Amino acid sequence: MPDWVRTRRREIGARIRAARLRAGLTQIQLGDRIGRDIRTIHRWEYAQRVPTLEDLLLLADALGLHPSDLFDDDAA
């Protein structure tokens, strides 16, 4: 896997974490909102796993974001 892919995965995970914290949610609370467990949320935030498109849409909705905000450097 190219280094830029790993870098982008870490950036997206950091944006998920930052948005969750801004929303005042724990990993458990976010997981409950989108039907995923805490391990899954943790793995996304720390770039151990990649969320699916469906997961990204659920995350954006639960966090009050547009899906592109999870990718856009200016939105994070």
Automatic annotation (TrEMBL):
SMART domains given in the database record: HTH_XRE (SM00530)
Secretion signal, residue range per the UniProt entry: none
Residue ranges of domain HTH cro/C1-type in the record: 16-70
Keywords per UniProt: DNA-binding
Domain of life: Bacteria
DNA-binding recorded as keyword: yes
Protein's UniProt name: Helix-turn-helix domain-containing protein
Stored InterPro entries: Cro/C1-type_HTH (IPR001387), Lambda_DNA-bd_dom_sf (IPR010982), TransReg_Diox_bact_type (IPR050807)
Matches recorded under SUPFAM superfamilies: lambda repressor-like DNA-binding domains
Organismal lineage: Bacteria, Bacillati, Actinomycetota, Actinomycetes, Kitasatosporales
Source organism (scientific name): Streptomyces nogalater
Keyword DNA-binding set for record: yes
